[in-house]
Prior knowledge:
By secondary structure, the protein is of the alpha/beta class. Helices cover 39% and strands 18% of the residues. It is built from 13 helices and 17 strands. The strands form four sheets. Strands 4-12-11-10-7-5-6 form a seven-stranded mixed sheet, sandwiched between helices. It has a four-stranded mixed sheet with strand order 1-2-3-15. The protein has a four-stranded antiparallel sheet with strand order 13-14-17-16, with helices on one face. β8 and β9 (198-199) form a beta hairpin. The longest helix has 22 residues, at 303-324. It is globular, with a radius of gyration of 21 Å. The two termini are 33 Å apart. 47% of the residues are buried. Bound molecules: pyridoxal-5'-phosphate (PLP).
Amino acid sequence: xxNITIANGNKYIMSTYARLPLVFEKGEGVYLYDDQxxxxxxxxxxxxxxxxxxxxxxFIQAITEQLQKMNHVSNLYWNKPSVELxxxxxxxxxxxxxxxxxxxxxxxxxxxxxxxxxxxxxKSKDCYEIIxxxxxxxxxxxxxxxxxxxxKYHENLVPLLPTVKRVDFNALEQLKSQITDKTSAIILxxxxxxxxxxxxxxPYLETVRKICDEQDIVLIFDEVQxxxxxxxxxxxxxxxxxxxxxxxxxxxxxxGIPIGGIIAKEKFSKEFTPxxxxxxxxxxxxxxxxxxxxxxxxxxxxxxxxIQEKGExxxxxxxxxxxxxxxxxxxxxxxxxxxxxxTLPVGEIVNKAIEKGLLLVPSGTHVIRFIPPLIxxxxxxxxxxxxxxxxxxxxx
Length: 396
Ligand code: PLP
């Protein structure tokens, strides 16, 4: 029988997604329920968004209370939740000032603009080049897309920003060969989330940090996917022993209420002055109330402390799977952002898992990503792993 939501969706919504034939109606904890009442264990979390899963009581309460007070107010004025969230982000990141927008791509655009303004004002008018990494993902707006190092997303859109150079990830000599007096910024993800769960090499990153310091190049970490506790610290760089000049955030901070932004060192942030950048919804009181709940659960109520342990639990289980199934050739990632590389395209695995009530998402063609809600328990991780084993058993 035809599903009317899917039929109307295909008719009325532009088909930018190859959607699976699933209509979700409600969620609770780490489980989603479709319109037939079938229950799914969610290892996707809205693609690293729903840190607190679904129907989280303190989240619902805070947002409901804020809605009753005030839904939106312009950035012509101040609102308390945005200032309080900015203060928390500064405190827990070790950086100095925040700019709020609404999504990951906009956060990347903000970082791009801030670094360009900084370089033009403090270095030279010709200092406008940005170096980005192959296999990276930074979003779909034209600036962020220009940084994104995956040709498939560029089709029919070339030329993109002509001031972007792309180099292989973790390839120091290649990077050095592209740095000139025109280099304004270098941008990278500490773990490439969409490009196959590829972690940065720490010695490489240390050298990049040193080069940026020596040549006054802005070092941007795109932590839209790795940030907000996902890898076991608020930002992934907090495990790497160095600090970026600008970090982006989005996805997890709002637990599903759209929010994004950047945090920067004051040396850079002070270059955003009235009129240089803006966003109508940026710092909206509902979104920033959502962010406050997520950060408070993570940083003040112990959620962050549990993530490394749960991440190790997941990692061990995935390594055991690698030892058992020949088609699994690698396990990569950190905390609750892990991936397995398999020798065959991942579509069949994802589809069979769905049949058995487990939601999984690929990262590229041969990697399956595990990005469950951060509130997941070890028992719920085991439940998902058991389903995955069943699936791999059938495919083997
Ligand atoms: N940057 C990174 C590292 C991402 O993973 C993503 C989305 O997956 C983005 C930017 C773009 O975020 P959004 O889809 O919210 O624009």
